[in-house]
Design brief:
By secondary structure, the protein is of the alpha+beta class. The chain is built from 2 helices and 7 strands; from the N terminus they run ββββαβαββ.
């Protein structure tokens, strides 16, 4: 478990199309060709940073909790890194599963 994650192991991510075909939102940093999942320790931080993410128009999104180990597994299967961000979008840690 990462030291910034609470003892229960929950972390916050943005989910695309939560009612049908829910997917964890990923982002792509073109300068370094890195695909990553923005993740947050606190729900409030995720909500504060939500408008800074690149999201498609016309699609519903919501912030949801996911267990850290499930997120690690999902990121590894899909060749994504996890970027732990604060509410202003500042990178706190970069996790390579």
């Amino acid at each position: 478990m990462h030291e910034r994650i609470n003892k229960n192991g929950w972390i916050w991510v943005v989910i695309q199309d939560p009612e049908k075909g829910a997917q964890i939102v990923g982002q792509h940093y073109a300068d370094d060709n890195i695909s990553f999942i923005p993740a947050f320790v606190e729900k409030d931080e995720a909500l504060m940073c939500y408008n800074s993410l690149t999201l498609e128009d016309g699609i519903k999104y919501e912030v949801q909790a996911i267990h850290y180990e499930d997120l690690i597994s999902h990121a590894a299967q899909n060749s994504f890194q996890i970027f732990l961000l604060d509410g202003k979008g500042k990178l706190l840690d970069q996790i390579t599963p």
